[in-house]
Amino acid sequence: MIVCAWSLFEFLQFMRMSATSDTQKKTNNGGGKTLTVRVDENLCIGAASCMVVAGDFFLLNDDGKAEVVENGKMKGYEYTLSNLTDAQIENILQGAKSCPTKAIFIHDEKGNQLYP
Q1: Is residue 99 in a domain?
Q2: C-alpha angle with apex 32: 111 to 26, nearest 5 degrees?
Q3: What CA–CA distance (Å, rounded) separates 85 from 73?
């Protein structure tokens, strides 16, 4: 019998940190658009689908709940991301849409709810 010493969370964190994606590279260039991203910690079950789809913008914290990420640093359950490209916005939306409990709320710079 093979015993895996890594939890799924540790494995996903390792994969996230060991890869530099095109989306993260685009973060450094900026695109001028702004989104406010909020994770409802009471709805989040730690499925990590947001992290798999949009790992540049979501990571699981020590409690196994998703938090918003900017430039590789966790920013909490609610954060406003600036200088986003269209590709980054689409990536964030896809990450939110992958959440099985719809725990991720996305608002544009005018406060309009984009998802869910």
Answers
A1: yes
A2: 120
A3: 19
**Diameter of the chain by CA atoms?**
55
Instruction: Report pTM.
Output: 0.76
CATH code at position 63: 3.30.70.20
* Domain hosting residue 104, numbered range: 29-115
Average pLDDT, the chain: 85
Q: Report if residue 73 sits inside a domain.
A: yes
Would 7 be classed as within a structural domain?
no
Q: pLDDT at position 97, please?
A: 98
Q: How many domains does the structure of the chain reveal?
A: 1
User: Is residue 46, in this structure, part of any structural domain at all?
Assistant: yes
Contact 59, 49 (CB under 8 A): no
What tens digit of pLDDT does each residue of 10-52 get?
Answer: 555 555 554 434 444 444 445 689 999 999 999 999 999 999 9
Tell me the one-letter amino acid at 63.
Answer: D
Could you give the C-alpha distances from 116 to 40, 55, 98, in angstroms and in order?
12, 19, 11
